[in-house]
Automatic annotation (TrEMBL):
HAMAP family: A_A_dipeptidase (MF_01924). Keywords: Cell wall biogenesis/degradation, Dipeptidase, Hydrolase, Metal-binding, Metalloprotease, Protease, Signal, Zinc. One of its GO terms (biological process) is cell wall organization. It is an enzyme of class 3 (hydrolase). The lineage of its organism: Bacteria, Bacillati, Bacillota, Bacilli, Bacillales. It catalyses: D-alanyl-D-alanine + H2O = 2 D-alanine. This is D-alanyl-D-alanine dipeptidase. The record marks R123 as: Transition state stabilizer.
């Protein structure tokens, strides 16, 4: 199941986004609600990869080095307000088949002046279990205003924003958006990543024509290269021909 560990772990520089405890930052270029006026600050962080991935998985930064990687579940800036179980490094891991398809997406979008910003790829089952435990703690609502201001957290599974069995855990689902290659600023999609509400539905009527057009640029590129969109989350795409369609993994992101 697991590939042989390489003799020496490879050191890379990953870019994460510094966030003060309990304070979220503003996504560049987004006019959506629920993002406080806090500027994103990137800082280089040395990450030593374990290089002990199961066969068929790869580190995405090695396939798409031009992308931005903002792994929210490694930080406290996510809907739980804490680092999620299983995220031991700010790395994006994906199936090798999915990575190849995503590289084709990236190449197509580069010709139009865009780069990808990746928020989440492979997700351990223990992380999903962590989400379930979080949802059952009704007293913990510290991230409610930013991520789910109009919803009861206990209903997030029923409403389809979180799943107890996720395509991410199969290594076939990716969460991402677009940024401008020249500036690194995010393209305005009308709502922030992981914002739970109708405004995040792909066909919502709550965003502008320009924001719809921006979402379509991302969707069209992803669909062209074999990904299926999810109607309730404009950032969420699943590879149609998954290499592990019924296998849920639980190895750490490290």
């Amino acid at each position: 199941m697991f590939s042989k560990q390489q003799p020496l772990a490879k050191k890379i520089t990953a870019y994460t986004f510094a966030v003060s405890l309990g304070i979220a930052f503003m996504l560049h270029g987004s006019s959506a609600a629920a993002e406080p006026a806090q500027k994103a600050v990137s800082q280089p962080v040395k990450v030593q990869k374990k290089n002990n991935l199961p066969k068929g998985f790869v580190y995405l930064d090695e396939i798409i080095p031009t992308a931005q990687y903002e792994i929210r579940y490694f930080s406290e800036n996510n809907f739980t307000g804490s680092r999620v179980d299983g995220y031991k490094a700010p790395l994006a891991i994906f199936s090798q088949v999915g990575a190849k398809a995503l590289k084709a997406v990236s190449d197509d979008l580069a010709r139009k002046g865009y780069i990808l910003r990746i928020y989440d790829a492979y997700r351990p089952q223990k992380a999903v279990d962590d989400f379930v435990a979080w949802s059952q703690d009704a007293a913990d609502i510290k991230m409610k205003q930013q991520y789910y201001p109009k919803l009861d957290k206990r209903n997030l599974f029923k409403l389809g924003f979180i799943a107890k069995k996720s395509g991410h855990t199969r290594g076939g689902t990716i969460d991402l958006t677009l940024a401008y290659a020249k500036t690194g600023n995010l393209v305005d999609m009308g709502s922030p990543y992981d914002f739970f509400g109708e405004i995040s539905y792909y066909n919502t009527s709550l965003i502008s024509t320009t924001q719809h057009a921006n979402r379509k640029i991302l969707k069209d590129a992803m669909v062209k290269h074999g990904f299926k969109p999810y109607s309730k989350e404009w950032w969420h795409f699943t590879l149609i021909k998954e290499p592990f369609p019924s296998q849920y993994f639980n190895f750490d992101v490290e």
